[in-house]
Amino acid sequence: MIDRTPTGTAGAPAEPTAIGELADSRRVRIGLIAMLFVIVVATLAGLSLATLAMFEDALAPALARKAGTVGELMAGRLARTVALGVPIDRMVGLDAFVANRLDGHPEIHRVTLHDHDGRLLYERSFEPDPHAAATGRAPAHDPARDPVRRFPVTVGDREVATLAFALDPDWLAREFNQIFYDVLTIFCVSLLLTFEIIYIVLRLHIETPIRQVVALLARARAGSFRHVAVAPARDEIGRSVAALNRLIRDLHHRRAALAARVAAIGPRLPAAVAHDLATLTARLGAAPERLVLSSPSDLRLPLFVFFFATELSRAFLPLFAAALAPDDGLVPRSVAVALPMIGYGLVAVVLTPVAGTLVDRWGARHLFLVGLVPTVAGLAGQGVAGGLWALVGWRAVEGVGFALVSIAALGYIQTVTTPDTRARGAAVYAAAFVTAGICGTLIGGVLADRIGYGPTIGIGAVLAAVSAAIVWSELPDLGGGRAAAARLGRGDFRRALAAPRFLAVALLVGVPAQMIASGYLYYAIPLLLNDAGLTTATIGRVMMVYFLANLVVTQGAAPLADRVGHHAGFAGGGLVVAGFAALVPIVWFELWPIVASVVVLGVAQAAGAPSRGALMIRECGQITGVAPGAAISLYRLIERLGAVAGPIATAALVDTLGLKAAVAATGGLVAGTGALYLLAARRAADRA
Asked: What letter does residue 481 receive in the DSSP assignment?
């Protein structure tokens, strides 16, 4: 048998103060993480600097060799043409010849051809960065700085012409900058991944075993010897746990031997001895039970890997959809790129109430594993999708898995926490999502540039399978059959939708917050930056700053909102700021202003999120005749409609207004709803 004790559960035996002071696992964990963090940062920084130095030393010579090879091949082809009797000054089709040969060689800025007397026969220039004006990424080009490579066109012993390449001196700097950002990306992701791994390893092999020892000793002090701990690896802590287990099992063996001897005495057994034996049996139990200390942190590693897998396509999903969209005109491009997100969101909306029922019936671990099956299948299908509708279908399959896994994770957190510790449990879910959002978006953008969209999503399928393996081997099975959660009925819908304050929070706060994230960040940002000529790696870095800003601000937003006590102001004000952030592209369409708008969006969303949750809980608890749990389910259902409405609303306006204006219109709508909620909340406060 297994005793599953949630961390912080009321009624658990109190730990002795002395033991708690001697085995301060939290202090041990923080100290070790800090020490390892410094070591890892120094190591990764050294590797990154060495990698950059290697690229810098190798890039310029490689560029010179590449240009030399192309020039010699072109000069040789021209020489063969002249040898066939075509005069060098009467050649036709040079534009097509040059364009074909220089395709994929952006470092060559200008091509010239002079005859043996120095007369210019042909000249063609290439724009080194056609999108520089739009993004503000490069200074004005100065032709006088161009290094020139010359290649003689020789027929026999006679030089009939000279082919010359003017190399773009800024190309090498831009290429090195791209490599620098890629290395920096890998550094940041490696740091976050290492931190996650260190956290999990320390928790599994140090903190949890220490807590098990403390719990066993606390039970022993209280007179209970019914449990043995799950022995970890064979280290010092593991040997201590194993020694305690041996002592407890030895007590059980002695009790069994004593019971056998007592049973042989039969009716002559004195009543006092029978009473003592019964007391001993109550303390020891029939057989030792396994003690499993469950906590929300059990989910951290599998959730992180799962979210990492699903976030790999975040930076390029609209671009992937656009590449697969047919040219038959039946579906406008603006709508086609939104369809994978729309299908995904609709599936999540439909399955939200169903998944809540399934987690009660099957248990969180079982539902988590079930949800990973369509996740793996959906990601694998997207990786090999050959058309838009296949991508949409497989994306919807992935949405089924995401809905089931997210509800299973929240159900697990609800099971292993108390009302006093539930917020900290929810923070584990949020931390896994945000950290994976940073890593997945960054790495996905870099991989898509290097290996393509489909293979990158295929890697996500492999990671989702890894998450399943972690759940199977590490996540405790808490079983199903919990008390049935409050379920939505028709009467609940009717009564909740008749509550004006509930509707105000759901429609004016919850839905717009989802709309601005899905409509601006997930739908429009990849398209805007791709149209500006930026790579998917750069798009991933720009989107990453949203998650980074969210991660930083979230830590202090909730305490600040609670201290100020004006949740309506934080929720509505956050929407106003987020809406105005979406106006930046139409006012100032350059790279860094757009990056700033994404940062502002992340800050505004993170600042308003705790207050949105507080308002939701308050209003859901005040609907007459509807259980709070059922009202929260309905709120989540309405809120997720905003994630679907965001790309729909933006895409519907693109063909009429253009992408920038459509984004601005969506931002204006969100800012307007936030202002409307602030006004409504103020009037309600005045009436009160």
From this structure: -
Q: Which residue has the tokens 């032709």?
A: 143
- In the numeric block, the tokens 């949630």 are attached to 6
Whether 647 and 519 have beta carbons less than 8 Å apart is answered as yes
Specify whether the CB–CB gap between 491 and 634 falls below 8 A. no
Angle, vertex CA 234, rays to CA 233 and CA 235, nearest 5: 100
- 151-182 residue pLDDT tens: 888 888 888 888 888 877 677 777 777 777 77
Residue 538 CA to residue 530 CA, distance in Å, equals 9
> Per residue in 49-92, pLDDT tens?
777 677 666 666 777 777 788 888 888 888 888 888 888 888 88
Q: Which of 654, 581, 602, 664 is nearest to 338 (CA)?
A: 654
Token pair for 462: 């492999």
Both tokens of residue 61?
């010579």
d(CA 169, CA 129): 12
**Ramachandran sector of residue 288 (left: φ over 0; alpha: ψ -120 to 50; beta: rest):** beta
According to DSSP, residue 204 is labeled I
Burial class (CB in 10 A: 0-12, 13-18, 19+), 5: buried
In eight-state DSSP terms, residue 483 is P
Structural tokens at position 474: 């590490």
409 and 152 in contact (C-beta within 8 Å)? no
- The pair of three-digit structure tokens given for residue 433, joined into one six-digit string: 């999502």
Determine the straight-line distance between the first and last CA of the chain, rounded to whole angstroms. Answer: 55
Q: Residue 508, Cα to own-chain centre: how many angstroms?
A: 26
State how far the Cα of 195 lies from the Cα of 189, in Å rounded to an integer. Answer: 10
Tens of pLDDT, residues 422-454: 656 667 777 788 888 888 888 898 889 889 999
pLDDT band at 134 (very low <50, low <70, confident <90, very high): very low
Within 13 A of 21's CA, how many CA atoms are on the CB side? Answer: 3
pTM of the predicted protein model: 0.73
pLDDT exceeds cutoff 60 at 397: yes
Place of tokens 């489909």: 454
**Which position has the token pair 């390029």?**
316
User: Residue 627 in 3-state DSSP?
Assistant: coil
- Map tokens 């048998």 to a residue: 1
Q: Other C-beta atoms within 10 Å of 452: how many?
A: 16
Residue 77: its pLDDT value, please?
87
Whether the Cβ atoms of residue 15 and residue 218 lie closer than 8 Å to each other? yes
Q: What is the 3-state secondary structure (H, E, C) of 362-425?
A: HCHHHHHHHHHHHHHHHHHHHHCCCCHHHHHHHHHHHHHHHHHHHHHHHHHHHHHCCCCCHHHH
Average pLDDT, the chain: 78
**Helix, strand, coil fractions of the chain, as percent rounded to 5:** 75, 5, 20
Q: Considering only CA atoms, which of 456, 342, 354, 455 is closest in space to residue 399?
A: 342
Beta strands at 227-229 and 158-167: parallel, antiparallel or unpaired: unpaired
